[in-house]
Every structure is written in structure tokens, then in C-alpha cells.
Amino acid sequence: MNNTNLENYAKEIASKFSSKIAKTWQNNDELHLNVELDAMPKICDYVYKNLNARLATIICSDERKNIGGFAIRYVFEKDNVFIFIIVSTGQGFAFPSIISHIPAAALYEREIKDMFGLVPTGNPDMRPLVLHEHWPDEVFPLRKEFELETKAKRQEKEYQFLRVQGEGICEIPVGPVHAGIIEPGHFRFSILGENIVNLETRLFYTHKGIEKLAESMRLDEALLLSERIAGDESVANSSAFCQAIEKIAQIEIPKRAKKIRTVFAELERIYNHVGTLAGISTDASFPFGAARLNILKEKLMQLNEYLSGSRILFGVNRIGGVRCDITDENKKLILETLSQVSDDFDKVTILLKSKSSFMDRLRGTGAIQKKIAHDLGTVGIVARCVGIDVDARRDHPYGSYYLHNHKTPQELVQHQIEMEKRTGDALARFEIRVHEVQDSLDIIRESLDLEDDSLFTSVPENLEPFRSALGWAESHRGQTLHWVMIGENNSIFRYKVRTASFCNWPVIEQAVLNDIVPDFPLVNKSLDLSYSGNDL
Question: How many Cβ atoms are within 10 Å of 19's Cβ, its own excluded?
């Protein structure tokens, strides 16, 4: 928590808009400002441009019984704090769009229109996003009157894809069902000759209703649900959920639990990065490298299973701490396995870098411009590959990451030089993943110095209704945010999840421009986007 930053930002915003701010308060590292609806666009624009804050998420909640309207929270992040700009729609069902100044808000506004029936006035794209064309009009799943058992009546409509006109333009529809064993997603290419001139994505074919389902669950049940948002992000998502509840309960988890969470978070990061690097090698037509990397991924997943009982690390976290301990025997196995993986990983990456055909296949492919990545609000490696230096482990330390954030001035200068050199292509994403695997190995080794402490802190039986908090984590894809508002009797009133994939999917439409269609699988794999983590 940094009260100085919170207070400084509160004073700066109040100095410009004091007459438009009804209430200001703090919640640990969160600054909350209740503002008038008509003033919200200007205040958000000021926070975004003048404070140079990133739009992290937009949260809508049906609070008509509590405050007489829907509440919309615009969450910005700056330094190590989150700034909440909060408005109520009152008796109305519309709110002003902010996408003309903050492009990253586009998908959030369409999501709110689908799920709550609120119209973002001024948004030029009113097409459905989450709810496909067969969903009936005037049925909004995240309104409180919508019952979980509701069977929506199918209607027949056609989705209006954007059409590229011109001589020689051809369309290639790909999906939503794919040849590989992956979830459904539709990609509509417009090409001129071999070059891609436009790509439009259509996702949410497997929308699971996670946020609505959580409203019927106890906190411990919702924890299990959070792990299953995307199986390969189980530790990141459950950590973020637990942190939100722990903040509401105002409890501190034991130091041993913090370090164990960090160890498992980095084990999750390593096996996923290694798997993605194997996929990149496959799509770059170098199956030998892919085979070597997949062997290492299997070793890591076997280690996961030995430590937690799950190859994808289900059941590691609990609210207030962790379920899985790391014994002295476990430490020894972790260090031995990581030593073997590290040696083999170094050998295979040196081999890959020595192959000019492999490096040339990645160089310049799927390049992203830094301004586009910034405007779309990208996170994780997709942001870092263009030199946008964001990482929740450092920017908002959780677990025991505060112990690993110490760089010398010379190291900071060198880090900045490296960030400025990044070109945003598939090669940059490959190189960052290689570096992050090595970094994760170091973090795990440092975190195994465990205190003789308990594994969890008990959570109060009756949490105060309608308190809320934001939890976060840095998955292998980037920052994931989980916002929870508690209901009565420790129920969940509202659960809003924003994974890294929601932020990063839009960038693929820009990354493939001027590439050729056969480049698409390589670009897609290098971005490592999740269908399940997006289709909540």
C-alpha cells in the first residue's frame, strides 16, 4: 500500500473536478471516487492522459436495490495503485462512451451492453460481443432478475461482419471449429493476393457464465470456479480471487503461504512458457525443437502432480493461504527437477537460436506497433514485446514477489535499454519467454527458503455485506484481475473477472496485417491467447 501516491492522485483529481466528485475513499491500494455521470468522460480522460494511467478494466454491477441504479467502475492503474472512477446510471439505461479518448474501453462497453442492457452512447459499434446473434433481445444475463436456470429462447439473426471492398479482395473464413484440438473461434480474413489486409475475430462461442454462476455460490465454491476459468491459469486466477477476499476480510496470509503461492505461480508460468515455445517451434517447422521442449514440459507437469496432485495445479490455493505444503523432500525434488530442466532448456534454446531458418521465420512476423498495443491496453508479454514495461509481480507486488524486485541502478538502466530495443514481432515474444523461464527458475529457488509458519489464516465467518475489493496476479499471459463484492451471509453479490486474454485478443487483428495467411498460426501461437480465459 502506498498512501502517498493515493493521496497525491486524489488531490490532483479533486483540484480539477472537485464539484463533480461526490465522495472519495481508500481501500488499501485502491482510490475510489464517486463522480457525476455526465462528468465521467472528462475525468477518465484526465486520469488516462494527464496522469498517464492505464485502463485496467471496467466493472458494471446491478445495484438497483442498493443505490437505485447500475454502478459502473472505471479502473485505472498508475504506479502501484488502482484508481476507481465510479458512476451510477440512476433510473436510466445508458452511459456515455469513452472510446473516442480511450480505445481500450471498446470491448468493455460492448460487454456491458450485452450483459446488462446499458447502451454506451457514442460508441459506433453496437454489435453483440459476448451474446451471439441467436440470443433473444431484452434478455440480459447479469441483471439480478435473470435466474440462473433461465432457458433463453433462440432467435434467428445474422452477425454483421465488416466487409472490405475493392478489386481483388477475397475473404477466407476460418473456424469456428478448427482441425486442431482447440476451442472454437472464428477468424475472417480479407486478403489481397497473399497479403492479409484485414482480420476480424469472433469469439465467445463457449461462454460459460462464470460471473453469473458465482452469484449462487459460497466463497469456497467460487474459489474452485476461479481455478477453472482457464485450466492453464489455475494458480493465477485462484490467487487473484483469494487476494480479493483476503482484502475484504482484512487478513494477512502467513509468510510461508506467500512464498508457496509464489513457487506454484512460477511453476505454472514455466510449464506454460515452455509449452508455448514448443508450439512456436512446431509452427516454424522445426519439430525437433518442439519435441525437446515438450519433453521438458512433461517433466514439469509431472512435478506439478507430485507436489499438488494435479498436473495443472488445481487445489493449491485456499482463501487465507494455501492447501499444499512444500516439505524438505519436496524442496529437494523441485531443485533437482529444475536443475535438469534448466540445463536442457539452455541447450535447446541455444540450438533454436543457432538455426537461421528458425530465427528468420520469426523475425518480422506478427509485428505489433507500440502505439497500437498501448491504445488497446495490452498486458503481459504482448505488451512487453513492444517495450511497454508492465508486470503485476513488480508493479503491484503480491505473494513474496516484493523480495525479488530489487535491481541495482545499472541493472535498471540496462533493463530500460532492452525494453526500448524490442520490436514487437514473434521473435521478440520468443526471446522474452526464454528470458522469463530463466527468471522464474531463479525466483523459485529464492522462494524455497520457507519460514516455519502456518499455511493459512482463518477467514471471519461473517464478512460485511457489499464490501468489495480487487485482486490480481500475473499469469504467463499477463495481468489478471478479479473484483468481488460480497453479498449477505458470505455470498457473492458480483464477481467480475478480466483475464489477460480479454485485453490481448484484439491485438491479433493488427499483428497479422501485411503478413500472409500461412503466418497466422505462428502469430497466434506466439501471442498465446486463450479462448477459455476470454469466454467467461
Answer: 9
Q: Which of 134, 394, 401 is nearest to 258 (CA)?
A: 401
Rounded Cα distance between 177 and 106, Å, is 26
Query: Half-sphere exposure of residue 346, counting CA atoms within 13 Å on the CB side?
Result: 8
Cα(536)–Cα(534) distance, integer angstroms: 6
Residue 189 belongs to a domain: no
Do 235 and 93 lie in one domain? The reply is no
What domain range is 278 assigned to? 212-366+426-503+516-523
Question: Which secondary-structure segment (H or E) carries 485?
Answer: strand 478-486
For residue 18, being part of any structural domain is answered with yes
- Give me the DSSP letters along 113-138: HHHH--EEET-S--S-SSS-TTSPTT
428 Cβ contact partners less than 8 Å away, ≥ 6 residues apart: 385, 386, 422
- Which one of 88, 121, 154 terminates a domain? 121
User: 254: burial class by Cβ within 10 Å (0-12, 13-18, 19+)?
Assistant: middle
Give the bridge partners for 484, in sequence order.
469, 495
Same domain for 353 and 490: yes
In a domain, 478, yes or no: yes
Of 214, 226, 224, 254, which Cα lies nearest the Cα of 490? 214
Give the residue from 104, 121, 138 where a domain finishes: 121
**339 shares a domain with 456:** yes
Angle at 494 between CA 492 and CA 496, to 5 degrees: 120
How does pLDDT run along the chain (536 residues), one tens digit per residue? 457 788 889 899 999 998 999 999 998 899 999 999 999 999 999 999 999 999 999 999 999 998 999 999 999 999 889 999 999 999 889 999 999 999 999 999 999 999 999 999 999 999 999 999 889 989 999 999 999 888 889 998 888 898 999 999 999 999 898 877 788 999 999 999 989 999 999 999 989 999 999 998 999 999 999 999 999 999 999 999 999 999 999 999 999 999 999 999 999 999 999 999 999 999 999 999 999 999 999 999 999 999 999 999 999 999 999 999 999 999 999 999 999 999 999 999 999 999 999 999 999 999 999 999 999 999 999 999 999 999 999 999 999 998 887 666 766 667 677 777 788 999 999 999 999 999 999 999 999 999 998 999 999 988 999 999 999 999 999 999 999 999 988 899 999 999 999 999 999 999 999 899 999 999 999 999 999 999 99
Domain count, the chain: 2
- Provide the residue count of the chain: 536
- What pTM does this model have? 0.95
Strand pairing category for 119-121 and 94-96: parallel
